[in-house]
Amino acid sequence: MPIAPSSYWNDIHGYTSDDVYDDEEGVETIHNLAYNMIYMMQAIANTPKPEIKKKKFTNFIR
User: Fold this and answer.
1) What's the pTM?
2) Rounded CA gap, 59 and 16, in Å?
3) 34-61: b or e for each residue (b if 16 or more CB lie within 10 Å)?
4) What is the DSSP secondary structure assignment for residue 19, as one 8-state letter?
5) Cα–Cα distance between 32 and 10 in angstroms, integer?
6) How many Å apart are CA 13 and CA 3, to the nearest integer?
7) In a 3-state reduction of DSSP, which class is residue 22?
8) What would the DSSP string read from start to end of 23-48?
9) Is the CA virtual torsion 12, 13, 19, 25 positive or negative?
10) Which has the closest alpha carbon to 25: 33, 16, 17?
11) How confident is the prediction along the chain (62 residues), in pLDDT tens digits per residue?
């Protein structure tokens, strides 16, 4: 399972929605996470999908 990395814990702190922008480290961490998620999703989208072959079953019971 692909997991997008970040630079630190993926959280941000503030009492109100305007307070979170004062947490510069948190804003930078979330920005890094978003950038890495975009990069990962683009890489997955541009990767050719493997060919799925029909599985053959063998019956050993006679």
Assistant:
1) 0.69
2) 64
3) eeeeeeeeeeeeeeeeeeeeeeeeeeee
4) G
5) 10
6) 23
7) helix
8) -HHHHHHHHHHHHHHHHHHHHHHTSP
9) negative
10) 33
11) 889 999 888 888 889 988 988 999 999 999 999 999 999 999 999 988 888 888 887 877 76
